[in-house]
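Researcher: Quick test of sequence recovery. Tokens follow.
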């Protein structure tokens, strides 16, 4: 694992986080489509849950990866500029971690208006009852009301997601387990579209990554809303600050008290970032009180910084070179628009929803 995160050019080597056996390897010629909403910095949970498989897939398949800022706006509509600045940073972050701009089409969703046009078609044929029973909506309704986001945009989030996939004829979608209901709905919408209009949009299949259960820096489940994750790229200072505040096994009150690594968030991060010899060192040292928690955190900090150094530098380089980043984004979006436009033309042919005279 450690060497995987360290070297962002090693995308094809085997990784600890394997693409799940449950989903078969996509056949040759499959089209991979995925994205993330741009509402915050990426943390390592997002990396393992979503992005790591992209790096593994990019050497074999055509891939479309979208910074989904319209999806971001569904909950952050009061801060559109923030969603946009996260979008730019996310783009830089992906490139810095080795998502290949040449091999893939990397774009920002709102720059490709065809997503919205296809969404309109999909909205017409999607019964409201399908959306009402999506668990992410059902479970979030109370929270949505409380946070002033019980809105139409959030309700139809999965319809837009179906269009994201279909507009590139995506056949396989690497996603986290939490996204399964969304993908099922995408398949249903696309199926109904094909049935109604005689289209041949592929019904997308999920690709899961068997994500390890990630514990947050405070010992709770890792979650954006708890603000308890390491960001994907952080400066060494920020890393040591986070480490200092991390709780350890409560049994280790004194330096001489032995501990149990299984009860310690520090150790769970060692498992992600450290090699077997360090793991053994931490485990034995912890159980025998041979090392202090300070030593253990210090070693972890070194490993995290080693892993992050290269992408961190690459990201800084991109952010400090706005013209370069902007031209990458412009190019990625233009390539996305070209493909999406072709698909939309075909959609208009299938549906017959196009000028009935020589208007254009
Ligand atoms: N819903 C996804 C998430 O929250 C983001 C997303 C939007 C997406 N459109 C997509 C993922 C299309 C895969 C395919 O992370
Ligand atoms: Fe956690 Fe390491 Fe301290 Fe053990 S020695 S409690 S694993 S920080």
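Model:
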């Amino acid at each position: 694992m450690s060497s995987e995160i360290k070297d962002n050019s090693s995308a094809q080597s085997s990784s600890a986080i394997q693409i799940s056996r449950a989903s078969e390897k996509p056949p040759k010629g499959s089209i991979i489509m995925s994205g993330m909403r741009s509402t915050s910095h990426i943390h390592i949970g997002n990396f393992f849950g979503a992005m790591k498989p992209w790096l593994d897939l990019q050497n074999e398949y055509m891939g479309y990866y979208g910074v989904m800022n319209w999806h971001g706006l569904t909950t952050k509509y009061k801060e559109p500029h923030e969603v946009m600045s996260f979008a730019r940073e996310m783009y830089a972050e992906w490139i810095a971690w080795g998502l290949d701009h040449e091999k893939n089409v990397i774009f920002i969703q709102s720059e490709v208006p065809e997503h919205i046009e296809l969404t309109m078609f999909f909205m017409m044929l999607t019964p409201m009852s399908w959306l009402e029973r999506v668990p992410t909506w059902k479970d979030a309704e109370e929270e949505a009301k409380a946070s002033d986001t019980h809105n139409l945009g959030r309700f139809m989030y999965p319809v837009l997601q179906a269009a994201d996939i279909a507009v590139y004829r995506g056949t396989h979608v690497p996603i986290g387990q939490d996204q399964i209901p969304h993908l099922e709905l995408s398949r249903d919408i696309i199926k109904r579209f094909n049935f109604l209009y005689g289209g041949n949009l592929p019904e997308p299949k999920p690709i899961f990554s068997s994500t390890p259960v990630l514990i947050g820096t405070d010992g709770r489940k890792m979650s954006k809303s708890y603000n308890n994750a390491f960001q994907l790229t952080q400066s060494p200072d920020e890393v040591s600050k986070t480490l200092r505040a991390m709780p350890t096994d409560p049994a280790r009150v004194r330096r001489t008290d032995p501990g149990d690594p299984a009860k310690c968030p520090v150790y769970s991060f060692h498992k992600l970032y450290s090699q077997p010899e360090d793991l053994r060192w931490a485990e034995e040292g912890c159980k025998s009180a041979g090392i202090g928690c300070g030593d253990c955190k210090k070693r972890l900090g070194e490993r995290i910084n080693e892993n992050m150094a290269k992408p961190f530098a690459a990201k800084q380089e991109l952010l400090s070179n706005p013209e370069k980043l902007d031209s990458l984004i412009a190019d990625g979006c233009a390539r996305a628009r070209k493909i999406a436009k072709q698909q939309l033309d075909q959609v208009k042919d299938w549906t017959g929803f196009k000028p009935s005279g020589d208007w254009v």
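Residues 31-213+322-351 form a domain with the Rossmann fold fold (CATH 3.40.50.620).
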